[in-house]
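Researcher: Structure prediction, please.
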Amino acid sequence: MKRLFWLAMLAIGLPPIGSASAHHSFAMFDRAQVATLTGTVKELQWSAPHVLLWVVKDPKDGQADGTLWTIEMSTGPGPLSRVGWTKRSLVPGDRVTVEFNPLRSGDPGGSFKRLTILKTGAVLATGAPPADMDDLAEPPAAAPPATQ
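Model: Predicted structure follows.
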């Protein structure tokens, strides 16, 4: 009985290793390259740990394409909601231009940087813009005047 008690105490005291090992690296994306894709939204998967966007590539120069691209956000729904996204920010059929860091493997996918909805011109980003996208940064809010 003592042994069972100590085994239970040991199990309770161990740190959770499953959650740390489940989170993957973004090393599969080439951060030195920025690619652009124009196409039609097939689906926005609004789920943790990372929101995914599927875009069907437009034909180029009259050639049929239709390649399905998977674009991965660096975050999940919670942080995206805090910067104005909703699960309905993009709907199937929206025509978009997406900027992303491509997969090193050359497969049709990448890590999201920003997106423009072609019909409205709206630009969506994931929060703090990368250094090369200063035009997306929100200006800091002015501090209220001090009162005495």
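Model: The first strand starts at residue 35 and ends at 45.
Researcher: Thanks, that helps.
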